[in-house]
Prior knowledge:
By secondary structure, the protein is of the alpha+beta class. It folds into three domains: 17-129, no CATH class; 134-269, Jelly Rolls (Sandwich), CATH 2.60.120; 281-352, 3-Layer(bab) Sandwich (Phage tail protein beta-alpha-beta fold), CATH 3.55.50. The protein is built from ten helices and 18 strands. A hairpin with a 4-residue loop joins strand 4 and strand 5 (173-185). Helix 3 packs across helix 6 and helix 4 crosses helix 6 (107-117). It is elongated.
Amino acid sequence: MSTPQPAQAPTAPSTDTDDVALDWFVRRAGGSLDAADEAALQSWLAADSAHAAAFARHQDDWRILDALPADGVRTLKQNLADDRTASAPTVPRRRAWWRGLALWVPQAAVASVALSVVCGGYLAWNHWQQQPVFTQQFATGRGQQLEVALPEGSHLRLDTLTRADVTMYRDRREVRLPQGQAVFQVQGDAARPFDVLAGPLRITVVGTRFSVRHTPDVPGREGVHVAVEKGRVRVVRATPSGGGESPVELVAGQQISSDRAGLLGAVSVVPAAGIAPWRESRVSFDDVRLDQALAEFERYGPVPLTVREPAVAALRVTGTFNPRRPDNFARLLPRVLPVQLREREGGVEVVHAAR
Length: 355
């Protein structure tokens, strides 16, 4: 039996099974088959199992196309348009065939053809887009700080005991902050948003300067804190449980904190000490428990002070101090709190003054 050929094809149909199947599929998807054409198609499919298999492959491609995001379809159409304008004699025969096809089938059908034949289609393009162009991990030890210049012009400053995992893609920039705190000075690029992932939060910017703190192991500071010095950032819970929540927009001079689960508190004003006093070797406490203040000092180096009494640990501290001089902090404590210092083996204990 001779192979029935599609009627009214724009060029002579190919004898290759896959090309014939593609011709049939596109014409049917475009709604151009009449009853006689449909009968001819069914006869062709029944003539050889390879015909049916080839036709089924193009149907699967169509279903993949239906699942593509809008930007992927736009890219496929652009690829197709680029191929339609190619005039080099080396353009493959199949591409030359579907250059004419674009004139008489719906754009969605054209895109599905492109999916099958253009450089691996959208799936290959999307895989290429998702490959990092730069990746590096930065970390600081106890008491260290680090300045980092990223290849696209942004800068990071990492505080003590901080880790930042940087990954740059072609369409976005991403920094994961598993622990610690950092100041970000982001190079503006509207085509490549800059995301900071800290615990349960995602902080997104285009160009600005802000700080993020994520110290899940520090008592009283287990959540995430974001403060903006310049520009604007968007903060939202990134975990699945945060679906449907509206992001919070912060502008210069504003800050916000979350709990460990990512529940955001109220927006407040950045204190006079700034978004990151640690840049000037300062830590600021605003009505903070004494044991939590000592834990903050411990992030920068050994602290020879201990607190065993719950009532003493709960006393509140306010002020700005040098984290590398805990001895100065210790001398000030008896002047501002009802405590005294007792020499113990291996260090000093802070006890209640009444003892």
